[in-house]
């Protein structure tokens, strides 16, 4: 029944062009309505999904990104200002005579404001992954903020729950020196079914080792992922766990709806709390531009972080268990979290086009000083740009390099990947193809062809549209996996679309004939 309701809900939302997670949330409330209750099995799946998600985040995380002021200082500043403002707002509601607010103390209002200060790791990561923006500038800022919030969560649990780490927690620092052993295990696992099993072992092992010494287990999964991140097979390991993680996270979304069945007053109060979501966005935007981020980065990062977190449920549950809040508040917070997921999913779906409409008014808040990561690089001397330097992009780059030489330039949004490719002697620059500001600041006068080698057809279509809006006059070519994707890209103005599967077969046949031609057996025609 869980699977049936989740499937119908997710598929329904997808047919409407909305993220499936909205359907999963609705499925949870529907199951609740029909008398189903949360169970240990479902909760175990939900917990496993969150643990795997944090582990995979760690696989893609760079510790140096967390040490930047625009991440850790901005996170702390945003949380402090939010708690002060929202405490005042919630305490002010006590004068409206609403039943659930009537007897609320200032301390209870502050606790509720703190619970709502966190952004949802599950929701944010899901949205960024579906849009292919995990490694973009704004994606990394958002993930960094989430990690800092997770650290604040650990501190809160230590103080509020009295869960003090044991002295053995100091031994966790020895994990840094255990990296060679971890790397050797990954190398020995190969590329088959043993690789995802290794990922499960590391994720759950990290969780239980940290939990054993009195530290939040989820943080252990995250840190173990971070330790493995520099390994060459980290990306492959992440991809092997992707389907498992997504499937188990369905359990998390269902479990939210199964917490309790609300009454109409609870629904209205939850919607009232969701009025604060735009305030969260405005605070994020103001904080990010204060730390000299570009308006686009601040806008997209703030928008995807504008929701309430599943950690709010943990805070509410702890408060209810300790007698600080009534049990009804757990249901209200669960509803507010669910509604905020829907808000973020819907708003972020058109985030880039929103920015295009608002960019002139938003840019006036930018600092005149640019951070190093926000300075646009120019493809000097290039006539062909290849956007997306993943496996397909690197393959295309290698095939074109002998013919084009320095006239070929690669572009990728991941600075680490670009750095490695540059060390290999390739002409590659950092750039986010979906960044409308980039196409206004990068000189494309001499660019005759732009190749889009991106995994998401929506991202490819969006870049094509932005290039046309920026008056790019050259040709655009892209890749697709399915026939319907080819049609979609052609309709957006792409000049030529390569079907990955069909073209791969044709390329294999052509290269085979060339080998035979070298032996004088067959003649290859163009």
UniProtKB/TrEMBL annotation:
GO process annotations (BP): potassium ion transport; proton transmembrane transport
Ion transport in keyword set: yes
InterPro entries in the cross-refs: Cation/H_exchanger_TM, Na+/solute_symporter_sf, NAD(P)-bd_dom_sf, RCK_N
N-terminal signal peptide: none
Entry keyword annotation includes Membrane: yes
GO cellular component: membrane
Primary residence: membrane
Matches recorded under PROSITE patterns: RCK_N
Sorted UniProt keywords: Antiport, Ion transport, Membrane, Transmembrane, Transmembrane helix, Transport
Domain RCK N-terminal, chain residue ranges per copy: 381-498
Gene Ontology terms, MF aspect: antiporter activity
Localization in the cell: Membrane
Transmembrane segments: 41-59, 80-102, 108-129, 141-160, 166-182, 194-213, 267-286, 298-321, 327-348
One protein family per Pfam: Na_H_Exchanger
Membrane-topology annotation of the record: Multi-pass membrane protein
Family in the record: Belongs to the monovalent cation:proton antiporter 2 (CPA2) transporter (TC 2.A.37) family.
Name the UniProt record assigns to this protein: RCK N-terminal domain-containing protein
Organism: Paraglaciecola chathamensis S18K6
């Amino acid at each position: 029944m869980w699977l049936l309701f989740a499937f119908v809900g997710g598929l329904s939302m997808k047919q409407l062009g909305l993220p499936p997670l909205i359907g999963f949330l609705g499925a949870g409330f529907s199951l609740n309505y029909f008398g189903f209750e949360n169970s240990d099995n479902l909760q175990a799946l939900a917990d496993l999904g969150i643990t795997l998600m944090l582990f995979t985040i760690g696989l893609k995380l760079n510790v140096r990104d967390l040490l930047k002021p625009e991440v850790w200082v901005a996170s702390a500043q945003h949380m402090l200002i939010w708690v002060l403002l929202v405490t005042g707002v919630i305490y002010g509601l006590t004068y409206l005579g609403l039943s659930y607010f009537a007897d609320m103390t200032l301390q209870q209002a502050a606790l509720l404001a703190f619970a709502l200060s966190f952004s949802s790791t599950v929701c944010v990561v899901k949205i960024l992954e579906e849009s292919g923006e995990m490694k973009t500038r704004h994606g990394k800022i958002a993930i960094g903020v989430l990690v800092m919030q997770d650290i604040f969560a650990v501190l809160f649990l230590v103080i509020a729950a009295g869960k003090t780490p044991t002295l053995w927690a100091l031994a966790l620092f020895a994990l840094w020196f255990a990296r060679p052993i971890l790397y050797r295990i990954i190398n020995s696992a190969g590329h088959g079914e043993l690789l995802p099993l290794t990922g499960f072992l590391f994720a759950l092992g990290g969780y239980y080792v940290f939990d054993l010494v009195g530290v939040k287990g989820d943080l252990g999964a995250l840190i173990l992922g971070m330790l493995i991140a520099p390994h060459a097979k980290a990306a492959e390991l992440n991809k092997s766990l992707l389907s498992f993680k997504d499937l188990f996270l369905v359990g998390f979304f269902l479990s939210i709806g199964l917490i309790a069945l609300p009454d109409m007053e609870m629904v209205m109060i939850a919607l009232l709390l969701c009025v604060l979501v735009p305030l969260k966005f405005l605070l994020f935007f103001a904080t990010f531009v204060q730390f000299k981020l570009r308006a686009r980065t601040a806008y997209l990062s703030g928008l995807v972080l504008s929701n309430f977190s599943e950690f709010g449920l943990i805070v509410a549950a702890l408060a209810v268990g300790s007698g600080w809040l009534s049990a009804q508040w757990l249901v209200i917070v669960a509803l507010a979290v669910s509604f905020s997921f829907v808000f973020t999913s819907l708003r972020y779906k058109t985030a880039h086009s929103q920015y295009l409409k608002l960019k002139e008014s938003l840019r006036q808040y930018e600092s005149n000083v640019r951070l190093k990561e926000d300075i646009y690089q120019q493809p000097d001397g290039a006539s062909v740009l290849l956007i997306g330097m993943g496996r397909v992009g690197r393959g295309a780059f290698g095939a074109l390099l002998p013919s084009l030489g320095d006239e070929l330039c690669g572009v990728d949004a991941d600075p680490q990947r670009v750095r490695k490719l540059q060390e290999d002697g390739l002409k590659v620059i950092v750039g986010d193809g979906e960044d409308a500001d980039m196409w206004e600041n990068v000189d494309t006068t001499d660019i005759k062809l732009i190749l889009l080698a991106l995994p998401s057809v929506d991202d490819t279509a969006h870049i094509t549209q932005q290039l046309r809006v920026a008056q790019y006059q050259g040709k655009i070519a892209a890749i697709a996996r399915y026939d319907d994707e080819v049609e979609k890209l052609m309709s957006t103005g792409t000049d030529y679309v390569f079907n990955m599967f069909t073209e791969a077969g044709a390329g294999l046949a052509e290269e085979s004939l060339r080998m035979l031609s070298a032996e004088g057996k067959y003649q290859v025609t163009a």
